[in-house]
Amino acid sequence: MKKQLLPLILLATALTTAQAQTKEGGITPDMLKQISQSYQGTPADRALRNAIGNNSIRALALNQDNLKDMDTHFSIRVNSKGITDQQSSGRCWLFTGLNVMRAKTLARYGFQSFEFSEIYPFFWDQLEKSNLFLQGIIDTRDRNLEDETVQWLFKHPLSDGGTFTGVADIVGKYGLVPKEAMPETYSSNHTSQMADLIGLKLKEYGLHLREMSTQGKDEKDLKEEKTRMLGTIYRMLALNLGVPPTEFDYVRRDAKGNPVETEHHTPMTFLEKYGDPELLTHYVMLMNDPSRPYYKTYEIDYDRHRYDGKNWTYVNLPIEDIKQMAIASLKDSTMMYFSCDVGKFLDSKRGLLDINNYDYESLMGTTFGMDKKERIQTFSSGSSHAMTLMAVDLDDQGKPTKWMVENSWGALSGYQGHLIMTDEWFNEYMFRLVVETKYVPEEVMKLFKEKPVRLPAWDPMFAEEE
After folding, report:
1. Other beta carbons less than 10 A from residue 205's beta carbon
2. Which residues have a catalytic role annotated?
3. How far is 270 from 121, CA to CA, in rounded Å?
4. Which residues have a Cβ under 8 Å from the Cβ of 201 and sit 6 or more positions away?
């Protein structure tokens, strides 16, 4: 009897599965027949299939017509000395912010070479972000775990990425030291393992703080427990990155590299002499986000690196307005913090960002027609990497034709450690620019006095730059 029933059961199951598959909205056999006609198996189709199946899409899409000699002349260029290297870390935001200050230091003192310690502010960044997370958990302790903010906190307890906000937040509170006072370690150059362990510990601590709250512990008890937790985080950071110096000797050298004077400093006195202690007041962030109204001020929740820091605000402007301020700054020999979607159309061998570098449309036989606004709205493009804007080339009418940035991927990457971008690419994939207020028109500065529109931390435009 069981042997007779088995085929009937299997047939019923198959029919049920077929019915489920042809439910309205699913792919029916007739639809599949029509869809599959798009690939005809012609000799051209087979040749493309063989090529794509055995090679990199980017290599096959490389536009041969765009491989002419790259123009590396720039009519306006700020000189720099020495390319930095963030290695396998997401600290581009930090390297870029420090490189903006470093350029001024090199020009002011005529040093042969100079570099701020990147690991020193990174140590404090990681500790402050840990406190930001834990205090955020305390602040949201009465909400359930499904709350969007609570979920965002647990998804992002710690990262090595950031924005210019972090440079201002951290440097303004802890100062700076020269590279030799706190050199890099393996964990600072390869941050993922350390970040994973600390992030795991923070999530555990976050759950513990919430459990304490449900047990009736008040905010004072929770903050005392948070301090104890941060002691463990500090120890983990010290084991990986070293202990930040509180004072040190710095040998100042002349333009030829000869020692001139030995100075004794704290991180704050070093910042005052060799850095820019007015990062929060002398600089403003500009954004080109066509998915939102222009000439409006915005603030992003939790877009800060310290709990007691300031959520960064920006004014959203048309790209041409931002270009004018960038050109004014470069004409005055002043570099800027710049961020973009660096992975789009990057020819890494030449160091060229050009929307004509790759012809994906001819290779795939279709078009990719979204504009910048649509790419932002669909999470297809956003600011991913920060670099130092240092040059622009202007035509006879004063219009920019191309731009150049100092990168932090080492001196052997790109074009001698730099990336060159066409103005057309700049229009499509540039997002943020931080400029000194003296290059910003009065009507734009007035916008910063308006009450900003507050956006959530998970807004598509505000992933941290790495």
Report:
1. 22
2. 92, 385, 407
3. 13
4. 232, 233, 236
- Residue 131, amino acid: N
Where do we find the tokens 């669909």? Answer: 378
The CA-atom distances, in angstroms, between 74 and each of 28, 391, 401, 449 are 58, 6, 10, 36
Residue 221: other Cβ atoms inside 10 A? 14
Sign of CA dihedral 98, 104, 109, 114: positive
Q: What is the pLDDT along the chain (466 residues), one digit of tens a residue?
A: 455 555 545 545 544 555 555 578 899 999 999 999 999 989 999 999 999 999 999 999 999 989 888 899 999 999 888 899 999 999 999 999 999 999 999 999 989 889 999 999 999 999 999 999 999 999 999 999 999 999 999 999 999 998 898 999 999 999 999 999 999 999 999 999 999 999 999 999 999 999 999 999 999 999 999 999 999 999 999 999 999 999 999 999 988 888 999 999 999 999 999 998 877 678 999 999 999 999 999 998 888 899 998 888 899 999 999 999 999 999 999 999 999 999 999 999 999 999 999 999 999 999 999 999 999 999 999 999 999 999 999 999 999 999 999 999 999 999 999 999 999 999 999 999 999 999 999 999 999 999 999 999 888 666 667 7
Which run of H or of E encompasses 33?
helix 29-36
* Structure-token match 């513990």, residue found: 208
List domains and CATH numbers for the chain.
76-104+115-176+183-243+275-455 (3.90.70.10)
Distance, in Å, from the CA atom of 332 to the CA atom of 455, rounded to the nearest integer, reads 34
